[in-house]
């Protein structure tokens, strides 16, 4: 398969292409979506007047709480057309269900196929998936479908279990693995402890999900640097979510996740709902294209990032998204500094004696935010608390309160029953939705 030509076309042509796709999507929502039909009626919106991408600003945002409160009203097809049911976490406690049709699964496969192509993956590669494919989780299924469409070899090992990962690598010899980047450090540690020469293994490339590998200038962050110092593999970042059913993947130049114009429309908005200037940080707002079961219009992802429109060295002219700065509702004001959890995680992930951790944010008596980092240690260095505070000050200028706990206590918080994702951030502030990431 050749890469989509539209990603290489002039920006004006990409915009016109997206405006045609947008009008088709609006017509479909007007016919088939109970939620959006009501929205258009209540806000007196004539979708026929929405002709340019800029006209989308006349339409209210869709938020995750809308999906939870009115989940069934977003479904645009009769029940017998639904092939797969997927769930994602909800802001109000219960998960949100996504209904996918046969066409949606084909679209999902296409999305991952072209995203893997962006990372240089071809039909000649063998990819070991260190991600779950069950528990109603979209990502693992999407990767499998995309690699199958690409014609690549697939090894579905699932997440965790370093022993099984290395056993599989040694037997089947994949050249690519796909996983959360911090897990790479775990399998490196296992290899070192068990005399596995991982540096000469078959693995030459890692496609990463779920965590940042780069800072905003696209240089490797502390986590990315630590991986490269240990293991000189090619590293590629991706960004995606269930709601978007679309992936932004890096190319070999590592300058942001590439946009697929045929699959999604992107806006970047400030706190007041106005567009931000290029290079400034804003919340990503998306409109899905070509989704049949549960298309979304102007959905607020909650992810803060910047957008870059200069052509990439790879030749693509479509926009690129930066690494995620943080979640809009997870912003922390601490000692006069604005923080987001990923900056705190980056320090902890790159402290060798830290086994695990959880960051808790709460209100204090002064009406500002209090930050407590509860840490489990691999070993107990002298003055661990002082050393950690020094590391925080060097990286983010302020040092949170630190409490040393048994690693097993933290592990039970990180991996609660029935959760598919580890919990590393807990927001206890009264004026914020209860959340954990």
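Q: What amino acid sequence fits the structure above?
A:
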């Amino acid at each position: 398969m050749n890469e989509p030509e539209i990603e290489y076309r002039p920006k004006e042509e990409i915009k016109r292409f997206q405006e045609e796709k947008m009008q088709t999507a609006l017509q479909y929502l007007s016919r088939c979506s109970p939620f959006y039909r009501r929205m258009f009626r209540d806000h007196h919106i004539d979708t026929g007047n929405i002709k340019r991408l800029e006209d989308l600003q006349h339409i209210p945002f869709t938020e995750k709480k809308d999906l939870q409160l009115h989940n069934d009203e977003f479904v645009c097809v009769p029940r017998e057309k639904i092939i797969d049911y997927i769930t994602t976490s909800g802001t109000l406690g219960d998960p949100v269900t996504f209904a996918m049709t046969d066409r949606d699964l084909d679209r999902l496969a296409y999305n991952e196929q072209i995203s893997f192509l962006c990372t240089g993956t071809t039909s000649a590669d063998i990819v070991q998936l260190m991600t779950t494919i069950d528990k109603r989780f979209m990502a693992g299924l999407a990767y499998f479908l995309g690699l199958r469409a690409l014609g690549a070899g697939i090894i579905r090992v699932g997440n965790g279990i370093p022993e099984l990962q290395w056993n599989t690598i040694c037997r089947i010899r994949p050249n690519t693995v796909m996983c959360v980047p911090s897990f790479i450090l775990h399998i490196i540690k296992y290899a070192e402890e068990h005399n596995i020469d991982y540096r000469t293994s078959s693995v030459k490339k890692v496609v990463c999900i779920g965590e940042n590998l780069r800072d905003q200038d696209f240089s490797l962050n502390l986590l990315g640097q630590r991986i490269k110092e240990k293991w000189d593999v090619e590293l590629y970042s991706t960004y995606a979510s269930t709601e978007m059913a679309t992936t932004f993947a890096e190319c070999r130049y590592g300058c942001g996740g590439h946009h697929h114009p045929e699959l999604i429309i992107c806006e970047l908005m400030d706190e007041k709902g106005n567009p931000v200037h290029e290079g400034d940080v804003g919340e990503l707002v998306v409109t899905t294209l070509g989704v049949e079961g549960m298309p979304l219009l102007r959905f607020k992802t909650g992810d803060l990032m910047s957008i870059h429109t200069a052509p990439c060295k790879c030749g693509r002219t479509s926009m690129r998204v930066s690494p995620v700065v943080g979640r809009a509702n997870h912003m922390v004001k601490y000692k006069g500094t604005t923080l987001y959890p990923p900056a705190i995680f980056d320090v902890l992930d790159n402290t060798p004696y830290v086994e695990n951790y959880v960051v808790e944010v709460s209100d204090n008596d002064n009406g500002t935010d209090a930050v407590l980092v509860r840490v489990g240690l691999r070993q107990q260095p002298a003055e661990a608390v002082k050393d950690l505070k020094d590391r925080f000050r060097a990286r983010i200028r302020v040092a949170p309160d630190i409490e040393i706990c048994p690693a097993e206590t933290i592990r039970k918080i990180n991996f609660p029953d029935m959760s598919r994702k580890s919990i590393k951030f807990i927001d206890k502030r009264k004026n914020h939705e209860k959340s954990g990431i």
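Q: And what stands out in the fold?
A: The chain has two domains: 1-324, 328-436.
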